[in-house]
Each structure stands twice: as C-alpha cells, then as structure tokens.
Amino acid sequence: MKHFNKLFAAAVLCAGLSAQAQDADHPWAVTVGANAVNTKVSTTSNFSNRMGGYFKTSDWNILPSVSYLNVARYLGDGFSIGLVGSVNKIDKFIAPASEGYLKYNPGDLTYYGIDAEIKYSFKEILKSKVIDPFILVGGGYTFMGDASQGTVNGGAGLNFWFTKNVALTVQSTYKHSFSDSRLPDVGVASHIQHFAGIRFQFGGKDTDGDGILDKYDECPEVPGLAEFNGCPDTDGDGIPDHLDECPDVPGLPEFNGCPDTDGDGIPDNKDECPEVPGLAEFNGCPDTDGDGIPDHLDECPDVPGLPEFNGCPDTDGDGIPDNKDECPEVPGLAEFNGCPDTDGDGVPDNKDECPEVPGPKENKGCPWPDRDGDGVPDHLDKCPDVPGPASNNGCPEVKEIKAEQVKQLNDYGKTLLFHTGKYTFQDASYSVLDNMVKIMKEYPTANFHIAGYTDSTGSDRINLPLSDNRANAVKVYLIEKGIDSSRLTSKGYGSKDPIASNKTVKGRELNRRVEIQLAK
Q1: Which end of the chain is more exposed for a tag (fewer CB within 10 A), N or C?
Q2: Count of domains forming the chain
C-alpha cells in the first residue's frame, strides 16, 4: 500500500506540471484512486432493487488507500482504450442462501484485478467542458484468494473536469464471472467494483513548454503567449516577434514594431541617426551646417565645407582642409601639414624659432652659436671661447708635454708637505702646487693621474685611506685653480712601491710623496 501512496503523490505532481489540453491533444491519461468491491449480485427481476443492492455501501469491501491505477490511450471520436490494475481485501463476502443472502468474513481474501476496457465519452456530444459521462466494455482476470477467473466487464462512470487535464473520476463496473462456484478460494463470484480517483491527461507535444501545443503554436520552438498563438513579444509592445522588425525594443505599429526615438518620422531601424532628428534625404540624419553633407559623414559638421574635403573648409586655399591644416590661415605645404617654411631650412615656421634665418632642425631652425667665431659651433667646440681648428675640436694647437715636464711635476709632488697624519697641506706646499698648475695649463690636452703614497709606518688600514685622501687633495686644488676635472684622476696606494728605505727617517720622508703620471 505504501508504494501506491507514493505513486499517487508522484502522479499529482505530474498533473500540476501538465499543460491544458483536450483528449485529442493529450492522448494519454492516468487515473489513481481507491476502489470498493461488492460481491452481492442480486438476481431479482426488480431493476430498482437490483441497483439498490449494488450501491449498498455497508456491503462494500474498501481498502483505505490508493488501490487502483488506470492507464488509458485516447483513440479518437470519443473512444479510448485502457488497462486497469486494482487491489483489495474481501472481509464482507455475500453469498446466496435459502432465505436470501448470507454475509460473512471469509478471512480477508486478497483481491487482485487486471482488466482491459474500451470507453466511450459523451463529452463532445454534450459540448461540456466539465461534465463527461462515459460507458465501457471490456474483460479481465480476477484473483480472489486462491481462486482466479476471467471476467467480462461492462460499466459506466463520470469525469468531472477541474481543468482541461485534471478530473475527478467515479466509475462502477460489473464483472461477470463464468465460475461455477461462488465459494471463497474455490471460485470467483461475479461482482461489482466501484472506483473513485483523480484522472490526469497528458502526452501532447509542446516543444517550447509555453502551454500551447505545437500544432496550435505558430512559434513552436520559442516560448510565447496564448494571445499571439504561442509566439513571444520580447519587447512587450503588443506586436509578436515574428511580425516585429525590432523585436528587442518596444515600438509602434505604424513602424512594424520599431521605435522612432528622435521623433523625425523615420523608424530607428531605417534611421542612420536614430538619436537626432534629421531629414529623409539623409536617411534620418541632420545637416547642421547646411553644406549638403549629413553630419555623420561631415568631418566638420558645424562649418560649411566642400565635398572633396568631406564637408570641411580650406580657408587659406592651399589644398589642405582646415581640420588637417596646422596653419589654416596661411598657405603652406602638404609636407608641413599646411604650414609654410619661409627660410627654406626644412623646419616649418610654426616650429621654427628663427623662421627668417635658416638653421638645423636639431636647434629648432636656428643657427648654432659660435662664440669664438672659429667655425666650430659651441656644442661641438671643446674650447668655445678660444678659436681653434675643427681638426682639434675647436681648440688651439698645442705642443705635446715632454718627459722633462712630467719629471718636473713629479719633483714638485715629492716636495709637497702634509700635516702629520692628515691630508691638509703645510703652507710651504701652496707655491709648489701653483707651479704644477702652470705646467698643466701649458699643455691643456694632456691628462694626468695623481698617485698618493705613504711610508710603511702604521698599517694599511690607516695608510691606504690617508694616501687616497692626500692624492685627492692635490686633485681638488688643481681643479680649483682652473684645471678641467676631466683631465685628472687620483688614487692612493698606501706604502706600496717605496722609492727609498723605510728604515731611515730620510727614506720614509721620500716615500711620503705624490707622483704625477701622464695618463693616456
């Protein structure tokens, strides 16, 4: 019984999802419900007494559960064929007796019935959408306890339709048995079986699931609305999509469902400028400047222009339209975007800082300055304030420094005196430094390396930075006196490369020196 209850619940759920349709549209039907069996079959000639006996509920065997299932297929013209399965328990068995009928409990006989039936519905004849009486004939096989027997069936019933596909069904079927015995577990008695249940019709094809069967649906592949025969109206403008030239945008009937956003009488789908009112001759686009070129094709829509320049003017008449002319008021050259080059130096006047005088592009059209007038421009002249040939980068020719001048510089370096443990000069050293400056200025193209040394007194940790600082002190002084810093390098070497013995005072004094070396 539990399984029948689950089946019933599932059937109700399916009914709730069913689309509305008539039998011809939904040819399948399932009915689930309860049944009652009455084994009392009256043989009286009085028809009313006989019928009263059939419907005396106190004689009915009723199973308080879902106890029958009917599956039917509609054939057409009101006819359908079905298969019925039912189950019950017989605890009220009525058998003929010498003084009428005997009712007793045969021991809860289990009842099973399997029946086929052909029904005829009067619904179409009555033209009713609610009341649906029917008659049926058929046959089946019944199991009653240990006995079983085939039967010939006939009956009638009524469907009461709540919707087009859900109905309450009541039915009574007389099952005539050909058994010779009516005894329980021996034969199957002829009997009446009553049914009450819910009927669900389904089976029509609705591809898009919109509740409109495909054969009535003008748009069977797309969910739609009943008022449009199953076709959708996506934009909700009252014009179904298959007749709407603009199905995604609400529009007007006079424009086949398309809108006219700018109100110029040209629907958006044919309006090349749907947001701006325009003219029909320009497909709905305006011509603001009135030059005969619509704005969407006019590169200068606010100024009257010429067709050859896409609606733009050429104020200076140089063949270059104003929107591409960097000098629209002055005739110019195409290579300079419409600007002239008065001095012909290849730099247009609008970018030439000296438009009347030729000059290189690198100097914004101006000639390079040459302060010393030696023909070598200042930016290439290493001696911009002293005339000199280009072969010497604008500097005057000078003789090369000789070994005796380098020796003289070294002799001066050896006489430099520093304060003890420091890299500051003693007063006597300044005249020596000035003599070194004089020699270096005589040879402006010569480069020098200044090497600082100490004696071996003390560790390298002290001597190396001290010698480096002393060499750098000489370099700084020379630069301050006018020697170009690019000509000088310096480095301290500590107590390396002594030129005398560090064991004597005189030797250590000689080793505390600065050497001037000619750099290549």
Answers
A1: C
A2: 2
C-alpha gyration radius of the chain: 60
Cβ(474)–Cβ(491) under 8 Å?
no
Write out pLDDT tens, residues 31-40: 999 999 998 8
Query: Residue 278 CB: number of other CB atoms within 10 A?
Result: 24
pLDDT tens for 365-421 read 899 898 888 888 988 888 887 788 888 888 877 668 888 989 999 888 888 888 878
- Are the beta carbons of 453 and 495 closer than 8 angstroms? yes
Q: Which amino acid is at 463?
A: N
Q: Are 18 and 25 in contact (CB under 8 A)?
A: no
Q: Has residue 215 been placed in a domain? A: no
What is the rounded CA–CA span in Å between residue 347 and residue 358?
9
The first and second tokens of residue 104, run together, are 């007793």
Domain finish residue from 171, 202, 233: 202
> What pTM, to 2 d.p., does this model score?
0.44
DSSP letter, residue 479: H
Last residue of a domain, one of 202, 229, 257: 202
123: left (phi over 0), alpha (psi -120 to 50) or beta: alpha
Q: Is 197 helix (H, G, I), strand (E, B) or coil?
A: strand
CATH number at residue 72: 2.40.160.20
Note down the domain range covering 421.
403-519
Question: In angstroms, rounded to a whole number, what is the distance separating the alpha carbons of residues 183 and 164?
Answer: 45
What residues contact 375, with CB distance under 8 A and at least 6 apart? 390
> 496 near 464, Cβ under 8 Å?
no
By C-alpha distance, which of 316, 327, 369 is closest to 351? 327
Of 94, 103, 96, 97, which Cα lies nearest the Cα of 40? 94
The DSSP string of 222-290 is: S--BGGGTTB--TT-SSS-GGG-SSTTS--BGGGTTB--TT-SSS-GGG-SSTTS--BGGGTTB--TT-
Query: Tokens standing for 203?
Result: 């089976």
Is 48 a domain residue? yes
Contact 95, 101 (CB under 8 A): yes
Q: Residue 518 — φ and ψ, nearest 5°?
A: -75, 120
Measuring CA to CA, how many Å separate 18 from each of 203, 225, 377?
9, 17, 98
Give me the mean pLDDT over the 84-97 stretch.
89
Contact 180, 169 (CB under 8 A): no
